[in-house]
User: Fold this.
Amino acid sequence: MGARRPGRGWRGIRVTAPEGTRPTRSGPSTGRGGDRRPTRPPLDRPRRAAYEAVAAVHRDDAFANLVLPTILREEGLFGRDAAFATELTYGTLRNLGTLDAILTDAAGRDVARIDPPVRDALRLGAYQLLHTRVPAHAAVSSTVDLVRSVAPGATGFANAVLREVSSRDADAWVAKLAPPMETDPVGHLALAYSHPQWIVRAFSEALGGDLGETARLLIEDNERPPVHLCARPGLIDPIELADQVGGAPGAFSPYAVYLPGGAPGDIPAVVDGRAHVQDEGSQLVAAALADAPLDGPDGRWLDLCAGPGGKAGLLGALAAQRGARVTAVEVAEHRARLVSLATRDLPVAVLTMDGREVGSDPKVPEQHFDRVLVDAPCTGLGSLRRRPESRWRRQPSDLPPLTRLQRELLGAALRAVRPGGLVAYVTCSPHTVETHVTVTEAARRSGVPVDFVDARPLLPAGMPGLGDGPTVQLWPHRHGTDAMFLAVLRRG
Assistant:
């Protein structure tokens, strides 16, 4: 399900303070006999906004990066208040597994048995107690106020649970609850750094079983990632863009700019299409395909899974400089519209079709394209910094249908590319089943001669930790990017 628009009809807390706690024009309310009853202040808006966002994620399967900006706008939150609400929302979602283990112990019952509104409020309160500088008394009292507004009968329970949570710091809770590193390293890392065990195991395998490096990756996954901009070549210089936004040029991509803060959608260069928001790793893999040496014609490029359009935008800008044209294929109509918006005024033709149907449409014939990008649908385990709720939604059972789709799309790309042409297979996941296994199996089944091109020289000189080749795996803790995988294949 997509995110529902916050506002009237939400089952979250209301914008106003709970009935009976609001001050009136005539002063505090009175009870029988004229007794003056103290009024409680309204709930503070940043915590309310964070609660509504977290509740929407768990209740409606919303995505935090989509629902939170709407909530902040409707609540009228800007500056420090918006930053605090954002920190509470994303911090709570990233640390959900560990917070739930702690709340289960503190409550004396499985967290799944706690009413969802109370559970989400307690998660926010526990995050404040264990991971922020909010004073304990403020974290407890504000969370109890929050519980009072959504489940008045649970305030005593919430108060007792939070006081138990506050009896230890985060490290002490991990020491109490995590299995020993010596006997169960995956279980220990999963609880200590709030990732499902199957993801920890997959990361460790992709890192060659190095548990120390796996821990560094998990730590980086829990950090707030910077916003990266892509300065579209030929339209704006990255140094100029960095000066305009008060940012810094990227460490590796020649088009990257690190945004220090603020709303990217308000930047003039983004508004008018000279730049767009895109992780530096995504820029690197798209540019690698465009820059790879190629014999013969080089005017027909294909983006086989183009939505929402970031890589198509960069490829389109590069194609415009080189006299090439890009065909961008996207199966979902709403995502195809996003690609059209992202590539306006660029030499990009957007088609709404299934990329596996290469050869069935005269606009996407077989053995026609010089360069083909397959940015395949995947688990997204490489972007957990940016989409923290994904780590709790994805399951190992998601892999078989995804890897089948990945193989079929890569097979279609190998049919679409001309002999001597290049295909780049990209996933935002380091899971070896989605990377090495998929690309090797798809190449074997393709029925055409395929050679792997060493992708390491296609990335900027001096990038550390690129491995032994011919494929490349980028990492948040090594490169500051999403965990993008790149394989480049040449059709014989």
Observations:
- The radius of gyration is 25 Å.
